[in-house]
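Worked problem 6 (solution included).
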Amino acid sequence: MFPLVLAARPVVAWRQRRAKRLGAGRILVSWSRSNLDKIIRLCCTIEAPRARAGEALDVITAQLAGIIASIGLTVGVVGVVAGEEPVLTAFAPMRDLIAPRIRDALGGGTAHLRRHLWLTLPGGTYLASVVNPYLPFEGSAEEVAGLLRAGLVAQAFSGRMKVGPAGARFELDAYARRPDLRKLLSLVRNDPAEVVDRLEAR
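Solution. The predicted structure is:
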């Protein structure tokens, strides 16, 4: 609805990677931070061997649901299908409501074929006023950053799971304005490492 395109390319400020050898293989976690003209994008990738893909999905679901619920704002979910109208749903910021929907979005049935964008909405903001349900919405990094820059969205998260012969790859992105960066880093940056720690403890 609001196709705001940036002229400058994002600048990757830092990258980190962590790996641990577990009983059934390696869990690899890497993340990076990019600057999208006053909007920060944190990208996290978690790679799990096939034998532990289900466990990784459970832990990632719990971690991401906890982060989104802790923000305490209405949660808008945008199902993105390239070239088609988006599917919009809004929820109260309750972990028990958000967690099963994140799990379905990442790994349930055919849902993983559609990318999902999770938006925290400022008070009194309706999701349909942020993303037009009657127009195609690509959900690109530039579009998402534009929503935050315009003050229509407080934070944004997206995720998808790709399954291959060797295992599963989870790609998670988080967006926030600079003033929210410290809080978002404390919520997001430490959590990928916790995925490894929690899986190791099982």
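Discussion: The first strand starts at residue 11 and ends at 22.
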